[in-house]
Design a protein that fits this description.
Largest sheet: 7 strands, mixed
Strand content: 15-25%
Shape: globular
Number of strands: 18
Oligomer: single chain
Helix content: 25-40%
């Protein structure tokens, strides 16, 4: 079996034979990695003389094999395909299965000359094997992602540590300080490995948040997957301070400060995707509690069609975001997808002919071609101050992260009245309530009526897993709570997830349900009269607004989510 990590020399020779690199470029690459224990090929990559895709295509052509690009594959390898190759076999031969069809298993490998390993795999698995070429980096990352790497999973690692320290007693309240001078002497290495595994496993399970919570007698680890917290095997209590210290070090926090909240950031690459982790640390009675929010750029750069709108609502949204001026508000509680929606709208509007400026706290994702301002209250760069300055930049479109006070609201309204299109968010339960919230802040009703063009409330419901979907007959409780009629029962395709290795208890991914409220003259008159939100809501429904619950029921009837999810995330319509 050829060693996967000793093929670089051969690739460099092949690149030179094909005239893709010169002796001078090889010398430059050697200089680039000198003293870093790197290969010439890695130096060529670093200098951007050749790319991984160039090498992949070259090897494929040389050996008459197809190529497989994990970074741009679009979908994950199905679990049933991964299951065809045991973990120990995949790690030993450095190969990752990618598809199975017609009795032939295709496996990705970085060294197409390694015929011996392919033959061994055929013998071990007793099936026809076909090799496809990938890159060394992608093979390493895919092995980590699908099999947990040679280091194993978090649970395996914790078992190893527990076995190795059965006779060790540590006072959980004692502050353990790690040696951080070189980021990893022998004492620090296990913590580096453990925290890396925690993050990798969170990414592998599609978690949006990692919660490290010190309780009285244990140190709890939970992942938030599709909006729901799931407890997993937790590190032992005696490792609490070491794990927290490692996370604080990675995120640039002050290791000596344990009394006040701190914020930090970690940047990593997983499966070819850049991830930002926004880290929050607060002191509690039993130690410091840490939450890591995983900000995956590929997850936020969605097109409007990918947010979960049906065709009629999508057309309405496209019409709203192309208004020449006015305010468009997106409302909902924390974690309801407001930022993702706003970024998708801005992405759709981002053209060379438009100047777009945002004021955010914090700037969660960097958007190409858009001017983003980070709010910093400690130097008096508030939303209001940023918004005033932004108007002097002659923008076409403005996005204010949140309207928190009357001052910010009035500046946003003045911007809308002077020909700007303004996007912002509010924390209200439904769309019509946003009107009364602005007035309660102290903004004059006539300003609200003349500037706000539309309001959208939203929630995120979990999608039914397509791998274990099965028909579902609505229960009496669901029919009663949602008011489902006989006609709706007959016409709908109601389903539920059985639960499988690919999903989380029958669900995989989320989509939005929406309440889109476009203000008309009748609504403006009600605003002038300063009526209750319930009156505005009733009128909004009369002129065609579909409530969150109604949109959720449409999506449940279409087989996209479950009725249980609609019940969980919507309240009774009080109109």
């Amino acid at each position: 079996m050829t060693d996967l990590f000793n093929v670089d020399e051969y690739i460099v020779d092949l690149l030179q034979q094909q005239g893709m690199i010169t002796e001078e470029q090889i010398s430059l690459a050697k200089e680039r990695v000198f003293g870093e224990d790197g290969t010439v090929l890695e130096g060529l990559y670093a200098l951007k003389i050749v790319s991984e895709q160039d090498v992949m295509q070259l090897l494929g052509a040389e050996y008459g094999m197809d190529t497989y690009d994990f970074d741009h594959a679009g979908t994950k390898v199905p679990p049933e395909v991964i299951g065809l190759v045991p973990k120990d076999v995949a790690l030993r031969y450095k190969m990752v299965p990618v598809s199975f069809a017609g009795g032939v298993l295709r496996v990705a490998l970085a060294d197409p000359a390694d015929i011996e390993s392919l033959d061994s795999l055929r013998y071990l698995l007793k099936m026809e094997i076909e090799g496809v070429v990938s890159t060394k980096r992608q093979i390493e990352q895919a092995l980590n992602f699908y099999y947990g790497s040679a280091d194993g999973s978090v649970s395996e690692f914790l078992e190893e540590m527990t076995e190795a320290t059965t006779d060790l007693t540590v006072d959980a309240t004692q502050d353990v300080t790690m040696d951080t001078s070189a980021d990893g002497g022998d004492d620090a290495a296990p913590m580096i490995r453990l925290v890396s595994l925690l993050i990798l496993e969170a990414f592998r399970t599609r978690a949006s948040d990692i919660h490290l919570e010190p309780l009285e007698k244990r140190f709890r680890l939970r992942y938030r997957i599709d909006g729901v917290l799931n407890e997993v095997q937790s590190p032992p209590k005696y490792l609490q301070n070491q794990v927290i210290s490692r996370v604080k070090l990675m995120s640039g926090m002050d290791l000596t400060e344990h009394r006040v909240p701190q914020d930090g950031r970690i940047r990593i690459t997983a499966m070819g995707r850049e991830l930002d982790l926004r880290v929050s640390d607060i002191p509690t009675t039993h130690g410091e509690s840490i939450v890591m929010r995983i900000l995956d750029k590929s997850g936020v750069m969605l097109g409007i069609s990918e947010l979960g709108f049906f065709e009629d609502d999508q057309k309405t949204i496209e019409r709203i975001i192309n208004f020449p001026d006015g305010i468009f508000l997106v409302t909902g509680p924390t974690g309801s997808g407001k930022t993702t929606s706003l970024y998708s709208f801005l992405h759709a509007l981002n053209q060379p002919t438009r100047k777009i400026i945002t004021a955010e706290d914090p700037v969660e994702y960097e958007l190409s071609g858009i001017n983003q301002v980070q709010i910093a209250t400690d130097i008096n760069l508030t939303f209001a101050a940023a918004l005033r300055a932004m108007l002097r930049q002659a923008p076409n479109i403005i996005m204010v992260g949140e309207i928190r006070d009357a001052e910010t609201g009035e500046i946003a309204i003045n911007a809308a009245l002077t020909g700007h299109l303004v996007f912002s968010t509010l924390h209200t339960n439904d769309a019509p309530s946003a009107v009364t919230r602005l007035i309660d802040m102290g903004i004059k009703p006539f300003l609200v009526a003349s500037s706000v063009r539309a309001i959208m409330a939203q929630r995120l419901v979990r999608r039914i897993c397509k791998f274990c979907v099965e028909p579902h007959t609505p229960t009496e409780l669901e029919v009663e709570k949602l008011g489902i009629t006989g006609g709706q029962l007959e016409q709908g395709t109601y389903v539920q997830g059985r639960g499988c290795t690919e999903c989380n208890k029958g669900y995989k991914g989320r989509l939005g349900i929406y309440e889109i409220f476009i203000l008309d003259e009748s609504i403006e008159h009600l605003i002038y009269q300063m009526v209750d939100a319930s009156v505005i809501r009733r009128r909004a429904m009369e002129i065609g607004m579909r409530t969150l619950r109604q949109d959720g029921m449409r999506k449940a009837a279409a087989g996209l989510t479950s009725l249980a999810e609609v019940v969980r995330l919507t309240v009774h319509d009080e109109a």
